[in-house]
Amino acid sequence: PVNQQEMNFAPVQQKKDTPMLGMKFLVPDHLQPETGAWWHQVMSEFELEAHHERLLTLACQAWDRGELARQVLQSDGLTFRDRFDQPKARPEVGIQRDSVIAFARLIRELDLDVGQPAERSRPPALVSNRR
Length: 131
Prior knowledge:
Blueprint: H1 4-7, E1 13-14, H2 33-45, E2 46-47, H3 50-76, E3 79-81, E4 87-89, H4 91-110
């Protein structure tokens, strides 16, 4: 059996008293400029381990993918007509939905919010679900 204390992982720590503004990080070149700037900001403000850096990169990729899908939906609409002239949802609807979910989950996994660690390892309860 695994000791419970060994299973508790420390959340990502915000850097204290060490301004990292002058530090250079190699931003992944496949990210959009705005997303790359956010990636760099997070890397500068938080002490991320290698696996956190990968989660951050995946979150940025999900954001960019969702934004690309949103742009297509904005220009082409939510639906198209199939060969039987029936309205169908564009594939970009699912791409955007999946990207938003992936981004939200990855950001939650990174736990970048500064404050006391949560007592439980589950997402916070919805206020409307409380009795």
